[in-house]
Design a protein that fits this description.
This protein is an alpha+beta fold. It has two helices and seven strands; from the N terminus they run βαββββββα. Strands 1-7-6-5-4-3-2 form a seven-stranded antiparallel sheet, covered by helices on one side.
Length: 138
């Protein structure tokens, strides 16, 4: 199991960043291989992924803590994958978004690059006003 961590500063209020991230329907807008995502029965996540042109359904969990402005997610089976993000107020209308991932993966550079791309996509959407909150969050 490999561990990855990255952080990005976003010029947007922490509440807005957290609202965007806690809405499962927004996941496809920043997660490169996820085409659809929905919650079923509480925190049970069902996502349609399309890595390497092979569409497959992924089952897992998506747990939101409004108190700590954090989200935990992961898969129920293989590949073993889970993560956690936290939204923190940096002051002056800025937010720090930190993400930690644990994944069984061979290509470390690709995982780091994909994580960075996701963070930059979130930042771009929120700072440029293109971020949307479908369904108003969880």
């Amino acid at each position: 199991m490999s561990e990855y961590q990255d952080t990005i500063a976003i010029r947007s209020a922490p509440a807005d960043v957290f609202r965007f991230l806690s809405s499962v329907s927004n996941i496809p807008s920043y997660a490169p291989v996820i085409r659809e995502a929905r919650l079923e029965a509480g925190d049970h996540l069902v996502a349609l992924a399309e890595p390497a042109k092979q569409q497959r359904e992924i089952n897992g969990y998506f747990r939101v803590s409004h108190e700590t402005r954090s989200i935990e997610w992961g898969t129920d089976g293989t590949p073993n994958y889970h993560g956690r993000l936290e939204v923190r107020d940096s002051g002056g209308g800025e937010t720090e978004l930190s993400v930690e991932l644990s994944i069984e993966r061979q290509d470390e550079q690709r995982v780091r690059q994909t994580l960075r791309q996701a963070l930059e996509s979130i930042k771009r959407q929120l700072e440029q006003g293109g971020g949307y909150v479908a369904g108003g969050g969880i």
